[in-house]
Amino acid sequence: GNMERIDLPPVGPTDLPLSLLEMGCSGRFELITHPLPHHQPLPPQSTLPHGLPPTSLNLEAEVEKQFLRDPAWLPIHDTDAAFQKDVRVDSLLNCTPSSLHSGLSVIRDPTTGMLLDFTEVDTGLSAKNSLSLQRQPGPPSESLRGSNTNYPFLPGGMEELTLDQIKKKSDLEEDIDFENACSALIWLCSPLLQWPFELDVFQKQAVLRLEAHDSVFVAAHTSAGKTVVAEYAIALSQKHMTRTIYTSPIKALSNQKFRDFKNTFGDVGLLTGDVQLSPEASCLIMTTEILRSMLYNGSEVIRDLEWVIFDEVHYINDAERGVVWEEVLIMLPEHVSIILLSATVPNALEFSEWIGRIKKRHIYVISTMKRPVPLEHYLYTGNSTKTQKEMFLLLDATGNFLTKGYYNAVDAKKERTSKHAQSFGTKNTSQNTSASQDRPVWLSLLHFLSERQQTPVVAFTFSRTRCDENARSLASMDLTTSVEKAEIHSFFQKSLSRLRGGDRQLPQILLMRDLLKRGIAVHHSGILPILKEVIEMLFSRGLVKVLFATETFAMGVNMPARTVVFDSIRKHDGTGFRNLLPGEYIQMAGRAGRRGLDATGTVIILCKTGVHDMGDLHVMMLGKPTVLQSQFRLTYTMILNLLRVEALRVTDMMRRSFSESHRDTQAHEKRIRQLKEKVSSLPPLDTEGQLSDLVPYYHTVTELRITTEALQRATLESVNGLKALSHLNALGVILQVSSDSVNRTFTALIICEKGNEEGEGNGPNAGALPHLYNTALFIPEGPCSHTVQKLKLQDISAITVKTLKVIPDRIIDNYNKRQQPRFRHDPPGQAISTATQELLRLAEANPGGVATLDPVNDLQLKSVDVVEGSMRLRLLQDSLRDFNCIHSPTFSEQVCVCERMGVQEELDKLLFLVSDQSLTLLPEYHQRIKVLQALKYVDSSNAVQLKGRVACQISSHELLLTELLFENALSPLAPEESAALLSCLVFTQNTQVEPHITNTLQEGIDRVLSVAQRIGELQRECGIAQSAEDFVGQFKFGLTEVVYCWARGMPFAEIAQLTDVQEGTVVRCIQRLDEVLKEVRQAARIVGDSVLGSKMEKASLAIRRDIVFTASLYTH
């Protein structure tokens, strides 16, 4: 029955327009706040004016509503998978209001049902079920790194764009000549930052783009001042109260940037694998891997993010880590603008176009080839006090290659080589010299340079041991004044004051101290990190005069010098020795010349044995730098991270990778539309009655045609195949075969009808029905004539068994003569008429076709494809006779089959290219899914299981580590043993020293190897290319003893004695091991294995001590 209405007095002016509405019978209330029209009673207080609804719903209706009409569970974007719904245009006109994020719920007295209170309850979106930025923030403890159960935020550009949106050029876009034009740029506002120097054109352009909040790609040489762009973005984000993330490829670089930006901005944080400083700052500096995990784990930082700055983007070429950059670029949400800083690369435009396409936004490419300090490149041939001035200019500051300088160097070198060596020629002098042989060269060169005040010098040497030897061989050299010595000494002592006493006495430190006092230093991956930083700081102050460094010094550290010397121009790249690539040379040579200090930078190439080849030098100095190439590959972590979120598919990630950027989907889509229209406009196929098998007939004939062509090619390209031939079922005889093996032509005499000598189509059904297969020979219907034509491979359909004796030269001469107007009406010569008669006689004798040579038996072509092809051909030819459609009277009119089928084929091909099926990595993706299913990381419907959740936590070698966890392989080991065992995941070098280890540890190693073997074999079975040996081989146990002893508290000095691995490498390895232990700890937490968790904690504490974990000097 009706609820009783209570009449209330009308609302007065003093009453607030509020009323409560009880929602259904669940005890939830909503507040109604809109004012009511005057003099109207209040609305009912419940949404149920007629009491409770009936409870027994019709089941059918319920099922239909839930499974057939409810769009929520149908994937909207995935049109391949969902069936077509009927289109209702008007549904687009009204949109539902977005739901509130909280509602009111009622608290009632449980006994009487009295209203006691209202509470606000949260509804809806959370980090566990939504990609939206509207979702509520997670717990503060997870705000920085996110959690591996969080969804990421929706990556920008995941929804498809229309062609018109892409075509629309904004009014700002113009093609600018960067080098010359551009005095017209005026500052629109007073810039946020003031620099002590006038900005270059490219910097001004970049800053203007940033003001407009656009994304930019800045390609310029190392010292050109790209940092200005980054600094401006940081300043902008401080002004806007947003955040900026600055990512760099190398940890050392992150530390340095932290110091630089800290001095400029103050509010800067640092996140690397082992350090976390002020993570709430507005500018965060981190390595790319950390940003990737923040994106996958839905970190709250992403909400406030305005800029992401990628420094040294050309690192995307790195085979091992390049894929991380691509993942990050694809996963960044829409509201984040991107700044890419890169060395000069040839394909900056193509790369930016890719980013623009996947992020659906304009990327402004700003590049400059200008060097603020131009470089001069010299060859140096001196090796004694007498010859120390022998330096020859090879490439001047304006970029001219001076061959004269080259020949002068060759002459200078020649004068000194003894007569004996000259008689052998200079070629066989080996390029490899020993350090003692180099010593005079270095001594004379450095003497010469310090006299001319050309220090500081960076000497690039492509081997660590060679760096050390060269520095040691300069024992007699002293390049510093006593004042400088004092400064070096005090800085050195102050920097190392944080080390424990024993660590200060390490041989490497003592050796380096002596070298540094004399102004000499060494910088490579084998040097202890803290020493490297001391050296970098002293170098940038100009106190290190000569620095022997490997290539890594040029990659990250921004430390320009006055002069750069190349010890050699060949380096070992892991597989073998090769010349430096132009990009590598430019990157290293670019360290010469300090802005504001030097007018030009000097680059010197040593000629120790002989002068390098001029061509090599020219390519290296003036060649194109390396293009950016995609190193995208699938990793299990990536697959699992995307599988745990329904809305993101791995194929979306693959389709957006740079390696697939050649797929011009828009152009394909356009062509597909055209073809679809064309198909619908063609007349329908008549496949009634006798013509019912027309389509399969067409397919058979097409296949036949393709097979024949392939066989033909094989036959006619073979030696045995050049005999006698028949043309368009008209017999002909070969007269001459051209010698050009690529486009080989055959001159042949062919019979034809009188009056049809010129026409190409000399057969009954040449033009009309190319799709009908016919073996009947052509017999002229009137008097027989002939023609001599040049044929291509495709024109020859078979070689007959018959041969004719003819005189080719006479036939050709005679025919050519009769082509001239004067002799047009002469009778054909004797040779021709005989040949023509013979051909006609043959044709009339075998109207059904002459027997042809079989490529396999007669011509002895035994390759697999030829044999298979000819068997297939026979099958197809036999099957043609069984078709009904050939007997239909209207058969010959069915030309439209051809056209329609052709269009349909092209359409199918394009649809394939646009679909996910054509992705290069798709087969590998399926193989990897198979592996994951076999190991129970995902179930048969690809839902991520517990093991998969654990593997998501782990950044490298995820399968092996997860398997070890679930097999409890670490449980019998002590904390220090488990740390030692896990060192195989981070150590990559080979060692000569056999480690001495405990039995339990040896068992652990065998266990790891057997698990690795099992995974490797499983991968092989599922079709992944890597062999099981290779998979097992990537785990190296050379440092197990070192780590074991370190975790048990042995001092570093003694540890260094246990192995031939250099100190710096050991330290780096133990630091990375700590990150692995952290990951295992989190994984143990997910599984609920508290024992393992605390064991990892203990192991971590045991290795985090002394020199291995001294904080970086840059972060203090």
TrEMBL record:
Reaction catalyzed: ATP + H2O = ADP + phosphate + H(+)
One Pfam family from the record: DSHCT
Record key words, sorted: ATP-binding, Cytoplasm, Helicase, Hydrolase, Nucleotide-binding, RNA-binding
Q: Name one GO molecular function term.
A: ATP binding
A GO cellular component annotation here is: Ski complex
Family matches, as InterPro entries: Beta-barrel_MTR4, DEAD/DEAH_box_helicase_dom, Helicase_ATP-bd, Helicase_C-like, P-loop_NTPase, RNA-DNA_Helicase, SKI2-like, Ski2/MTR4_C
**What protein is this chain from?**
SKI2 subunit of superkiller complex
- What species was this sequence derived from? Myripristis murdjan
